[in-house]
Amino acid sequence: LLNGFQLTQTIRKSEPFRKLPVILITSNDDERSRERGLEAGASAYMTKGSFDQSVLLNLIDQLI
Description:
Elements: H1 4-13, E1 23-26, H2 31-40, E2 44-47, H3 53-63
Parallel strand pairs: 1-2
């Protein structure tokens, strides 16, 4: 099994999916986890604790 960070890294290494937008939505709310997600190649990082559907929809609009 892969966690979200590992899956994002795998996507970024795959030629057909390299530019696929990836939004990580996680319960990890600390700054180090956010940095790890972005370093892994995530296009955006959101936390479940502050989840807002309109923010997610805006992110999707920006990324596609």
